[in-house]
Amino acid sequence: MAMFSPAIFITTAGFFHNSAVHVALAIGGSAAVVSAIVGVFTVLRAQSFAGHALADISSAGGSAALLFGLPPLVGFLAMAMLAAGGMEVVGARQIRERDLVSGVVLGAGLGLTALFLYLDISMTTASNAANMVMFGSMFTIAPETMIPALWVAVLALVMCVLLYRPLLLIAIDPDLATIRGLNVRLIGLLYLLTLSIAVALSAMTIGAILSTALLIGPAAAAIRWSCRPGPAIIIASVIAISATWGGIFLAYDSFYWTRNHGWPVSFFIVTIIFLAYLASGRTTALARLRRAITA
Amino acid sequence: MLSNFMINTWTVASLVAITAGLVGFFTVIRGASFAAHTIPLSTFPGAAAAVLLGVNQVLGLIVAASLSVIGINALSRRGQPDVATAMTLVMMLGLGTLCLSQISQYSQQVYALLFGQVFGISQASITPIAVIDIFAAGALLMLFRPLLLSSLSTDLLQARYLTATRLNLAFLIILALASAVALPVVGALLVFSLMVGPASAARNITSRPVLAMGLTVLISLFTVWTAIVLSYVTNWPVGFFVGGFGAIAYSAGRGALRIRRWKPSPIS
Amino acid sequence: MLTVDSLSVGFPGNQVLQDVNFHLPQGSFCGLIGTNGSGKTTLLRTILGLVTPDKGKIETGVGGIGYVPQKIQLDPFMPLRARDVVALGIDGHHLGVPLPSPSRRRAVDSMLAEVGATEFANRRVGDLSGGQQQRIMIAHALVRGPRLLLLDEPLANLDIRSVAEVIALLHKLVVEQKITVLLSAHDMNPLLPVMNQIVYLAHGRSVSGAVEEVVRSSVLSSLYGYHIDVIQVHGRVLVVAAVGAEARTTEMAHEPVHVTSIP
Lengths: 295, 268, 263
Hints:
The complex is a heterotrimer of chains A (295), B (268) and C (263). Chain A has 295 residues and is an all-alpha fold. Chain A has a single domain (18-294), classed as Orthogonal Bundle (ABC transporter involved in vitamin B12 uptake, BtuC), CATH 1.10.3470.10. Chain A is 79% helix and 0% strand. Chain A is built from eleven helices and no strands. The radius of gyration of chain A is 20 Å and the shape is globular. Chain B has a domain at 4-189: ABC transporter involved in vitamin B12 uptake, BtuC (Orthogonal Bundle). Chain B starts with a helix and ends in a 6-residue tail after the last helix. Chain C contains seven helices and eleven strands. Chain C has a six-stranded mixed β-sheet with strand order 5-6-7-3-8-9, with helices on both faces. In chain C, strands 2-1-4 form a three-stranded antiparallel β-sheet, covered by helices on one side. A two-stranded antiparallel sheet of chain C has the order 10-11. Chain C has 263 residues and is of the alpha/beta class. Classes of the chains: A mainly alpha (295), B mainly alpha (268), C alpha/beta (263). Chains in contact: A-B, A-C, B-C. At the A-C interface, helix 11 of A face loops of C.
């Protein structure tokens, strides 16, 4: 593919013919969309910490999967769902207490991660386990993971569509939702399970402790740009996909401009998302300024 | 287990446990769990950067800890605090990934920084840890009453020099210092377990604030000591036991509270 | 006493208070009435010095200000007894861990007795009922002996009985200790029997004076932009909004006054 100018675009040659890149684009893209959509509800519900905690805890599953030779997706997903169930069982409505419960479950989950990673490193050949599980392994995802990962992503999207209105209503006022006949706890649990899928997908691609970036960043930026949930979801998805694909492209490219010492995909994705978040702050500041001038 | 070599471990682990307990007490009553998780975790890139640039590790940790406090503080002014915290965390971790990828032999180091390396602490590292820990603990005890008061309502702080924003910043700085020194010992991810587990149990055992704080420190010391012994015996990572005890302590605390509330008349 | 003189407060793009004036002599029981968003909390926070005014002067006399903030959601897990909250009112801004002190203990005990909270002094504050928590917060505000007490919506979220109890407590403090009380509320009815001054905020502007002067159908209707009746039942005055579409008119303000009799 002939690219117009700067040096960084020169090496695009092999990009679209590399099967590892295909897998990364497909799984990364689906992880991005699911995370962005679930993320909008996460930010509205002020549950960033729970989202982050589930992502971190899913690393216990990822490291256990390595130990027992299971597909990583199964490990990440099972552990995230288990933790989501755990948080729901303890059940706390106050944000402060809910954060503490997330924290305690997180602590226990990370303890397990520590154990499994220790066993991975000492008992298997996966000496790079800590790095793979915690910081992602976008280019080393097995191609056969792609189809199940896409199905899981579709399931999460269907859940989002079904839960769209109840979640918005609950975000406005849980009591109001109860009066309207919604089972707030059940919906909370379903939401946490959807959240588990989102974080498991992105944990597999950009790493357990970084998947928070895909979950919170695009959503937080989008909510500042649009105050309506529908457009916010679309903007968030666009930011997430651009960041992920852009990150994959830059990481692939960086092999050439850093002389085969490529920079990690996760770094690029996080940086793009962070910049989008900062830029969104600027537009609201601008809007406020404009209002102040016209007022 | 009580050899010369282990004495450093016991000393440093106890210092870390005391400070983490004190910080944890305020973390829990102020509802600052996310910040308490974020600051240690986003401090860890500092260690990686220090290796890469060839500077002192403690310096790297403290710089990274300060950056994360500044990040949380600056971003919170413009949006939801939990989002600000999350964004600071991921950006710091993103930088950390970059630094790590540039260090050739890193997997073992990543593991140690994330999950701790209690055994094999050198004599020389005790002094800086002790100095910073004592400073952090002293600062917290000085701020005991204002911190307690502002956790009821920030509007209750009427003194001019101690505004709610400044007090919160001071708390984050103390948290950052405590995290920076605890990190090489118990690891970025589990500093946090040590901060929330013991305090969440202690606050349900007693209603007296000073007593609850003391109990937190005791539970924290007990957790660390038991975890070291178990880790020594089984060879499993310390973090596994610290995290597990955190969850047990929390559940025990909830149980204790339920029993207290069952009594027909309150204890006076 | 409290004097507020041509006070204006605004945030960028939002003028909250405009030229607010009133004077409360020592020992007044004053209701600060207004709808949500009318600037009640901002006014109280400005008097406390937490917000800097754009214009105007505030004089609070000597003796400091006690403050009960809006709707404190006390964490049921917070390790804090009722008496600890009151003790924080004495020295909460001091540095260091509190050491046992007999004089502080005496001060706390007498304050707890004053607000009728002795029986639940040693209970966890998060376990107390809304009315009990409000008494503790009043004790917290008064324990340093201020001459002026500000309360932000202390009656919101309380049941009818707790409302009556909190009002009776405040009334007792005004009568016995000549404390000036300024209390914000969106519903003035429970306060009508005890308050002697009223400050009414609407759209950033204020009307103030003795209750008899302000609680009139004509004054209230023009403030609300909606027809308001002032009626008398069993010797008590009640303020009610009129029903029906024809009430929604500002011209109503010029109609004759219906009932203006205050016990």
